[in-house]
Design a protein that fits this description.
Radius of gyration: 16 Å
Structural class: alpha+beta
CATH architecture of the largest domain: Sandwich
CATH class of the largest domain: Mainly Beta
Shape: elongated
């Protein structure tokens, strides 16, 4: 019997952010955005910070997600990610201020390559949140 929908589970280190049946999912993959419908071919892939969207019960939901992994099966999509936040949980002005502050830090001289990489990854995480606005 063919699957009628997909079970979507989004897990963070803190909690299970989403666990529900959905019609489709769009994920920010490391190599680009990809969509998943029921009966999709199984695969495992890294994901990057960005906007994850899904359609459930006729409405579209969006979350900002961080680095992680997506496991796709014909009847289930499992997302393991650093964070998953709804638009209502994000203060865009605060996030913009943090991006500006970190961007200023990148202009400093004497930063090690590791420090530069860390700051860039922090900026990517913050910019993922802004994609919901």
């Amino acid at each position: 019997m063919a699957a009628q929908g997909l079970q979507l589970e989004i897990a963070t280190p803190k909690a299970l952010a989403v666990s529900q049946e959905v019609a489709s999912v769009t994920v920010p993959g490391a190599e680009g955005e990809f969509g998943v419908l029921p009966n999709h071919t199984p695969f495992l892939t890294p994901i990057r910070p960005g906007k994850l969207s899904y359609e459930a019960q006729g409405s579209k939901e969006e979350l900002a997600v961080g680095w992680g992994y997506a496991e796709v099966r014909p009847d289930k999509v499992l997302i393991l990610t650093e964070f998953a936040e709804k638009r209502s949980d994000i203060d865009p002005e605060k996030v913009k201020a943090e991006v500006q502050e970190l961007s200023g830090k990148l202009q400093q001289t004497g930063l090690s390559p590791e420090e530069v990489d860390s700051i860039r990854k922090q900026i990517e995480r913050l910019q993922a949140r802004l994609k919901l606005f």
